[in-house]
Specification:
Radius of gyration: 29 Å
Number of helices: 4
Order of helices and strands: HHHH
Shape: rod-shaped
Number of strands: 0
Structural class: mainly alpha
Helix content: over 70%
Distance between the termini: 84 Å
Largest sheet: none
Amino acid sequence: SQFLQRLENFDKDNISEFSLRILRRKYMDDPTFVPEAVEKVSKAAKSLCMWVRAMEVYSRVSKVVEPKRQRLAEAEAQLHEQQAKLTAKQEELGAVERQLAKYNEQYE
């Protein structure tokens, strides 16, 4: 169904702060909006309640994790750059060592 497809494809990384504030204020602190309580009314609604709560938790955790992901990406980019420089210097060193070995052979 379209409804399930919309839930599966929901852009959980871009939930607006406005929506989250409303969600937290109206539902997350409501003792009747917990899976156990909702299940008494509807098993399907229980699953939807669990999904909504999971999206809120994901959003909170994502705000903590995302800056760390960005720092990791920056560090990996710097590492890649430094590894490329190291490889170039190792190639230069190899050329110098081969040249030195060649000179040593000539003068021995």
